[in-house]
Write a structure and sequence with these properties.
single chain, 246 residues, alpha+beta, 8 strands, 23% strand
Length: 246
């Protein structure tokens, strides 16, 4: 059975450890998604502090985790298709941040009561769900370190390199780049800088012949230089490299 039989969850852990799930377990995962919703305008999908009885998987598009503080918006994580954006809400019940759509997105909802059944009867699938939340934690640690040590051009380069790799895992990136619906303000919010500074940073990387970001598309001109500027080592994504599960 191919993954086309699981249209809602076929990208879950694709490129990482999806092979650890057999066809029956993939069917159980697909059955967790009991409602699907599509948004074509920016919307807060999940609001900070709301009591949650379901978790959300991103099927299409891009969503951000957002914290508002000091009159500013901070994007603290970005999600690509296949990600459970709030699986940790199963345990926490309330999020300490908003989850917002960027561009057109489609999401699916897994009731926590159904996840209860998986934890009770499907130990391998339960471990893979847990594993996916730990991947989020690994990316958070990397973002914290890079925000602390890199300049604005390094932060942007790292963000672009990471998204390119993550989208490649789920067959949504090409050899030279990928679609990126984020505005320069949203890039600034993710890189801890201002829109004006981000505009200069985008121009600097373009003029240096590293990457071009325009009209919703990222074109990488020099992949090695992009990785060098962003100090990007993909090992923390648990795809290829020394941390990959076998």
């Amino acid at each position: 059975m191919t993954d086309d039989a699981f249209p809602l969850t076929r990208r879950f852990l694709q490129g990482r450890s999806r092979d650890a799930l057999d066809a029956r377990e993939r069917g159980v995962l697909e059955g967790l998604i009991q409602r699907v919703e599509r948004f074509t305008e920016p919307v807060t999908i999940l609001e900070r502090g709301a009591v949650l009885d379901q978790s959300t998987i991103l099927i299409e598009g891009t969503v951000a985790r957002v914290i508002h503080e000091g009159g500013r918006r901070h994007i603290v994580a970005l999600h690509v298709p296949g990600d459970f954006v709030d699986l940790h809400a199963y345990a926490l019940k309330r999020l300490d941040h908003d989850v917002v759509s960027i561009g057109t997105v489609q999401v699916g909802y897994a009731p926590h009561a159904a996840i209860d059944d998986v934890l009770a009867t499907e130990p391998n699938l339960a471990r893979m769900l847990w594993y996916s939340t730990l991947l989020d934690a690994a990316m958070h640690r990397e973002w914290i370190m890079k925000l602390e040590h890199l300049s604005a051009d390094g932060r942007l380069a790292h963000l672009i390199a990471e998204l390119w790799q993550r989208l490649s895992f789920v067959d949504l990136a090409g050899e030279s780049g990928f679609a990126l619906p984020l505005t320069q303000q949203e890039l600034a919010d993710a890189c801890g800088t201002t829109s004006i500074h981000m505009n200069r940073t985008v121009r600097k990387l373009r003029e240096a012949g590293v990457v071009d970001i325009s009209r919703g598309q990222v074109t990488v001109i020099d992949r090695e230089e992009l990785a060098r500027i962003g100090a990007f080592d993909p090992a923390y994504l648990y795809g290829q490299g020394p941390l990959k599960l076998t």
